[in-house]
Amino acid sequence: MEDSIIKSLEDLKDLNLKLKGFRVFEVEESFRGVPEYSRKDFYKICLHNGDSTIHYADKSVSVKGYTLFFGTPHIPYSWDIESEKHNSYTCIFTEGFLSNNERLESLHNSPLFKVGGTPVFHLEENSYQFIKAIFEKMLEEQDSVYHYKDELIRNYINLIIHEAHKMQPSENYFTTANASSRISGLFMELLERQFPIESPSQPLSVKNPNDFAERLNIHVNHLNRSVKEIMGKTTKDLITERITTEAKELLHYTDWSIADIAYSLGFEYPTYFNNFFKRVTGSTPNAWRKSMIV
Q1: pLDDT digits (tens, 9 = 90+) for 114-126
Q2: Contact of 53 with 78, CB cutoff 8 Å
Q3: Would 192 disulfide with which of 39, 74, 129, 211, CB 3.0-4.6 Å?
Q4: Which residue windows are transmembrane per the record (predicted)?
Q5: CATH of the domain at 30
Q6: Taking a C-beta distance cutoff of 8 angstroms, is the pair 225, 180 a contact?
């Protein structure tokens, strides 16, 4: 059952999801965990009824009964279900789905979605039933033919966010990771926060180990040791891999010029980007783009 549900989540990469940037579903009791979506640009809101332990960044929190959880694409998490009887509702959505909503900026800065924030909330019966009703309305609307259903669903998401802002966060956190793990988590969060790139006019500003160390207010050697210890790769290698992945996405899915892509990725000149891409992939950007044309 778990494999089939994970497979169904992977199937959400289809065109329908890309067009909407949103999906909501109810999780069956037989599934032993809350869905984790592999795409790096999806936020998640989970409503759960049951006993479990949530591992989030460098902390874990034990929860019983009704729980509301907010997941960000920038911070790793996992969810261990501990009770036999449980049920969950989950919605995933992109920043782009909310991009024409005035609440987007507060989403970036919200304590629900940032490192060191408060993503886990214990709910009383009334609050649980209220938010459950919102999820059920989203389930109903996502397959409807109502012309303005996307806007309606955006309002439902923001209603849940407002409800959470009024609540007190769960306080029974306990630390499960060492300092190196936390530093690595902060590094990965800062790295992923820069993606996806949406415009050549907003190029990468943090693109080498020294830049990251400065932002995190630690010595670059300390950063490199921590990342290597936890991730098994160097800071430079992880940055290179992420920039290469984004370069491929831009080459494949946009019609930007090679020069625009180079600039958006923080390269001063297109030749620098060409040399970088060929060194990593064995192909020039232009040749790789042509190879993707079916």
Answers
A1: 666 678 899 999 9
A2: no
A3: 74
A4: none
A5: 2.60.120
A6: yes
